[in-house]
Amino acid sequence: MDSDAIKGHLTGPVIRRLSEYLLILDKLIIEEKEVVSSRELANNYGNNASQVRQDMFHLHHTGAQSHGYETRELRAAIADALGLNVYKRLAILGVGNLGRAIAMHVPFEDYGMKLVAAFDIDKNLSGSSISGVPVYHTDNIQKVIKKEEILLTALCVPAEVAQQSANQVISAGVCGILNYSRTRLKVPKHVAVHYEQIICSFMQLSCQVQHKKS
Amino acid sequence: MDSDAIKGHLTGPVIRRLSEYLLILDKLIIEEKEVVSSRELANNYGNNASQVRQDMFHLHHTGAQSHGYETRELRAAIADALGLNVYKRLAILGVGNLGRAIAMHVPFEDYGMKLVAAFDIDKNLSGSSISGVPVYHTDNIQKVIKKEEILLTALCVPAEVAQQSANQVISAGVCGILNYSRTRLKVPKHVAVHYEQIICSFMQLSCQVQHKKS
DNA sequence: TAGATTGTTAATCGATTAACAATC
DNA sequence: TAGATTGTTAATCGATTAACAATC
Fold first, then answer.
1. How far is B142 from chain A (nearest CA, A)?
2. What is the C-alpha to C-alpha distance for residues B92 and B132, in angstroms, rounded to an integer?
3. Are B64 and B29 in contact (CB under 8 A)?
């Protein structure tokens, strides 16, 4: 397969946009729209048609006629390029409000992931389930991660225990962490960490709003 | 004040990094570290010293001696540049798990914002409070937003009602929206929208992990 | 055919990194 | 002084935008 070679060339910004196009396409598909032009897609996303076409170019997606892209075909091409056809097994650490929100409302199955476990330090939660997934006590992190062959983890624990939790899941084989805890993590080079500092998004918004006014 | 002129020149990527530096500095300050070098800050954030110094340059922050930056001074300079000294009043729409998580765990007060209201369509929640903030029924959005002079809103409602909710808050005067609902919004030009598509962050992580392996 | 829209290259723009003299 | 580290300019790199021939 040369799709691996293609994927290897996608840069961060392109990957991000492709994933956002995917959501837009899914909405269009539900609306039974069969064809979409680069211009329409750009209007939806908020960029310009040139960039959309450039992104398709990176994707090597040539299945387009000269009157737009087939929504379903494009959806499949993007999903393939992002590797969503190879299901990734996922765990959530911390079943507070945030962990719960993610477990319950993020449609992992539609986008190449499968939530298979959740962990919490609260013993009252052990043995319960959320969104059809068992909640384990944090004592069992290593054992369950290995047994369930979990690759990705969302860290929704307090900052104080985040590094320790990260260490545990990494030593059990996790190689991708989405970090919602308000702290920077030290991890080995083979592990990818994405930081989702909610407060930083608020600051960014706040800062931009202010300029518009003045 | 020329601080406005400075702020106007900060670009998106710079603003984002500055806000992240702020969190790192706060950690260092708690640890009673009084001076930090561009190299140390870069190690914490995960970029390089050159970029850190370039960011300080954009900030016009010259208060540095030739053996590092005073953590407290730098903290203040960044907060000033980001406009965090002018408190922004904030509301959360949707008190589900996500809205609750944000209300309870995001330290707005430390970063120039003040949460003053929450809204939910569930009448059982009306009149209750969360994190010391009253929860109103969505029928009162316009009235309360105006009365409380709310500028920013976090949208934590289901996709189906997101556009409608956005319309309401915008017409009441909100000019910045942090959108956690899985949908694109159509808004007038004077309104800033930041998209936080959680599923897209997972896809990005998943995609990158895959390449590291192959 | 005329019109719409793509695929692709080239031009522009902006962001990151490197380099180094100046400073304490 | 020697060493560490900044401030700032220049060089590099990458991402976005523009342009337009090719296609249906």
1. 20
2. 13
3. no
Least Cα distance to A183 among B14, B199, B156, B105 occurs for B105
In this structure, which amino acid lies at residue B207? C
pLDDT at B2: 39
| pLDDT at position A213 | 62
pTM > 0.90: yes
Reported as a single tens digit per residue, the pLDDT across B77-108 is: 999 999 999 999 999 999 999 999 999 999 99
- Which is it for the CA torsion B126, B127, B130, B135, positive or negative? positive
B140 DSSP assignment? G
Q: Does the structure show a pLDDT above 70 at A21?
A: yes
DSSP 8-state secondary structure symbol assigned to residue B183: S
CB atoms within 10 A of CB B175: 20
E strand segments, B17-70: 35-36, 69-70
Q: Which amino acid type is present at position B201?
A: S
Please name the member of A12, A19, A27 whose beta carbon is closest to the beta carbon of B203.
A19
Query: How far is the C-alpha of B23 from the C-alpha of B108, rounded, in Å?
Result: 12
Q: Over the stretch A41-92, which tens digit does the pLDDT of each residue have?
A: 999 999 999 999 999 999 988 777 788 999 999 999 999 999 999 999 999 9
Rg (CA), chain B: 20
Count of Cβ atoms closer than 10 Å to residue B143 Cβ: 11
Show residues of chain B in contact with A207, CB under 8 Å: 7, 10, 15, 19, 82-83
Q: Which of A112, A212, A97, A105 is nearest to B180 (CA)?
A: A105
The encoded tokens of residue A144 equal: 């369950």
Among residues A27, A4, A106, A183, which one has the least CA distance to residue B203? A106
